[in-house]
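4.2 Preliminary Data

To establish feasibility before requesting continued support, the project team ran the inverse folding procedure on a target of 443 residues. The structure was first converted into the token representation described in Section 3, and no sequence information of any kind was made available to the design step. The complete token record follows.
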């Protein structure tokens, strides 16, 4: 059978046998050819309003909408044989619609090839093709028995692990205990004001994951390959970043530099340093790496440098954020996104960020599984009693406990490390919120 035969049979089932509930959950208007697409859309709109589509109501709807020529279509549909299994017909129509969309996409790819940079055209084509993958329509629908079985197996596995977390390890004891590692499908925002070390924290997590045999891709829209590589060598080799960038290395630095090189040279850590990426371009690169060697972690630096559609900057960032959440589900791995903050926190005595400080869009908080802020008191306060300490403040954790964890910040090595003893951060916060006298640094 050809696509029109399936289309007619499916429409017959909707209009004569009340099969709308099953059909509308499996196919949409884009799966139909232009000949029957509008007819299907009218039936779907009636169903969405709580009505049962039939020939009379669809024809009436077409007349109100000013459509003509539906009479012959209705006759074809009415004379069709009743499908024995409308579900199977929907699956076949879905398959045939992918074939048709591939032909349309070939025209679009030809346009990209003629008008875009070759690398951009390639990424757009890869992303578009992957979106057309045929999927099992029922795979997202599970019975309670199936869900219970899967969840109990996960609980048993966690119990057998003696309390060890099941997610991807960040390499930091306190963060791993709080977040239980980084879970697949999770979107994690790491945010902070400039100079707090948010990029270094995300990079350190990526380095730690790669060192543990995981496959990682880091999208660096602010720094070049060379800059990021120097940060990695400084961090993993414990070499002064200042000396590394100013070509003033000492003799004792070379063994450390070699050690850092050895720790990372054979690891599956990839860096893409193109600026102004779209989610489609990022998705295309992720699929490429996933096919090559699997993909365990995606890191994006940073959100505000990405491009996307939208009538305002807030709408644009909101759309990007939602697409990144979808990317985490598609790739079946955690996605860490670095984000800037607005200046509101600097107007408060206690300058530790809160969720409303997220820049450009309120949807970031809604989309994220975890929102964590990087804060260093000595950036603002010259007389801080916790110099060299970074606070990782988890303000949102869907399914977990929020709170603050402290790390040692080794700025000249671009490195965060675990602290043996947690400083008394609470007393410092109380002092700042009560307006205690502190020498604030201009920022």
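Position-by-position output of the design step:
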């Amino acid at each position: 059978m050809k696509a029109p035969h399936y289309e007619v049979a499916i429409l017959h089932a909707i209009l004569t046998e009340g099969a709308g509930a099953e059909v509308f959950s499996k196919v949409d208007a884009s799966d139909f050819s232009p000949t029957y697409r509008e007819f299907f859309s009218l039936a779907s709109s009636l169903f969405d309003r709580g009505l049962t589509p039939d020939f009379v109501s669809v024809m009436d709807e077409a007349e109100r909408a000013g459509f003509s020529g539906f009479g012959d279509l209705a006759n074809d549909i009415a004379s069709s044989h009743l499908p024995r299994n409308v579900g199977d017909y929907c699956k076949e129509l879905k398959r045939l619609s992918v074939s048709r969309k591939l032909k349309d996409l070939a025209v679009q790819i030809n346009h990209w090839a003629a008008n875009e940079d070759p690398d951009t055209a390639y990424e757009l084509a890869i992303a578009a093709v992957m979106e057309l993958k045929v999927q099992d329509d029922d795979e997202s629908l599970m019975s309670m028995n199936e869900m219970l079985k899967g969840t109990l197996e996960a609980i048993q596995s966690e119990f057998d692990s003696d309390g060890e977390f099941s997610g991807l390890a960040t390499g930091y004891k306190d963060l791993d205990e709080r977040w239980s590692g980084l879970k697949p499908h999770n979107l994690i925002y790491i945010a902070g004001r400039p100079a707090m070390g948010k990029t270094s924290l995300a990079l350190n997590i990526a380095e730690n994951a790669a060192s543990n045999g995981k496959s990682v891709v880091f999208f660096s829209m602010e720094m070049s390959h060379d800059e990021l590589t120097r940060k990695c060598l400084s961090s993993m080799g414990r070499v002064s970043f200042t000396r590394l960038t100013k070509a003033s290395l000492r003799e004792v630095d070379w063994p450390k530099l070699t050690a850092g090189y050895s720790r990372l040279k054979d690891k599956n850590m990839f860096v893409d340093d193109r600026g102004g990426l779209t989610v489609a371009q990022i998705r295309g690169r992720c699929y490429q790496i996933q096919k090559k060697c699997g993909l365990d972690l995606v890191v994006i630096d940073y959100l505000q440098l990405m491009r996307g559609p939208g009538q305002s900057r807030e709408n644009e960032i909101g759309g990007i954020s939602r697409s990144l959440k979808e990317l985490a589900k598609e790739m079946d791995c955690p996605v860490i996104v670095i984000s800037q903050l607005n200046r509101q926190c600097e107007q408060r005595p206690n300058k530790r960020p809160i969720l409303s400080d997220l820049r450009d869009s309120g949807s970031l908080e809604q989309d994220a599984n975890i929102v964590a802020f990087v804060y260093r008191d000595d950036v603002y306060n010259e007389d801080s009693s916790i110099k060299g300490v970074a606070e990782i403040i988890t303000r949102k954790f869907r399914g977990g406990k929020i709170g603050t964890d402290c790390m040692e910040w080794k700025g000249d090595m671009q490195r965060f490390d675990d602290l043996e003893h947690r400083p008394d951060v609470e007393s410092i916060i109380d002092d700042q919120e009560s307006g205690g006298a502190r020498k604030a640094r201009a920022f």
